[in-house]
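Section 3.1 - Work completed
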Amino acid sequence: MGTYDHRMDSKGRLVLPSRFRDELGDRLVATVGIDSCVSIYGLPGWRSFFEKLSALSSARAGCRDVKRLLMASAVEIDVDSMGRVLIPPFLREHASLNREISVIGVGDHVEIWDKELWEARRLQIISELPAIMEGVGGL
């Protein structure tokens, strides 16, 4: 959990906050996020997510497309000795990542967002929060 603002270098590397590294481990899987972000899972979390993804019905076009996109976009990434991860160019493009980024904890994974896009999305969610809470049945 939490939000950390960082900078990505010109090669597409960013320091993953130590709190997230401790939880996720050194071997990670990155893929396109459902929104305009990059989702990063530790290997155990990815296996759990993969099982849920695999259980989707291949008879439904939407399920097939979700499987295709998330699996075709998945890539293993390592944490280097300085705590950095390299985000591949196609994932940086998907998330419109620039130099200023936000790393947010989302339970079983983290998301990498362009800082401005995250701030706009966060404010949108806040403005819609009562309706969202009603739609998901509250807590």
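Second construct:
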Amino acid sequence: MDMSLLYTIPHAVPPREAFGLAIAIYFYLTGLSAGSFIISTLAYGFGMEKYKPLGKVGVVLATLLLIAAPMFLLLHSGRPLRAWHLFVYLNGTSPISWGSFLLTLYPINCIIYGFFMFRGNAKLTKIFGLIGIPLAIMVHGYTGFILSFAKAHALWRTSMMPILFLTSAMVSGVAMMILVTIIKDRFFGKDRKVNTEVVFGLGKMLLWLLVFDLFLSFSDLSVHYFGEAESMEAARLLLTGAFAPTFIGVETLLGKVVPLVLVANTRTRNVMVYGFAAVLVMVGIFAMRCNVVLGGEFIPLL
């Protein structure tokens, strides 16, 4: 059988998965956590006072998401009770080994940071907020390293994978905070009035993050498309193969291009449009996680 046919048959069955949907969800939740934590530090860590209403809700969401995310990782492992082995049998060259400690230290720091924030201790809140930023970056960055170290999978074999994961984490985190701000103010605020200054400020961040994310995606795809045979097949899988509908339709057009147009157009500059754009972005980034994880394993091992 001509193996090249596998990339264009929508119902073709990929090889046995090392990862799967649970890992895609794990990557997605850690990205949301990292993005929401960094947004929460804008006021308490960097003095951007207009984002102070996001501080407490941001750290609570970051902590809850980081507690939920490893559950999918343990579920995927099949033997969650043996997870303690990762802390005992160390491998200094393994991202997974380092990630075990990061996934422990980061939520602990989130809890400490949130504790001092709710207690009103500005000095210690700032200290642990600034400590948490590199931890948040490393927690999500190491997931990109896990994939890029898998040399047999052409779609993952790129040094851009960590920065792609970090950028998409910020994109989804900002989008989630836009949505949370609208819901919180509209349904739980004292005067039921949305803080438009915060929403529009986050929308401006989202605009430039989407531009950067699209640039990175285009660059990565171009390198694959004009690379060796295996990389070309990985690019074709996303552009014309089984994953084209979710990559082009959901991830790129629905999840990036449409929200970019909505937040860039001053004539559509209102809270509901920004909320709709945020939902599209979150759907698009989830599709990106699935495309990368599942698409990377769709092509037979080299």
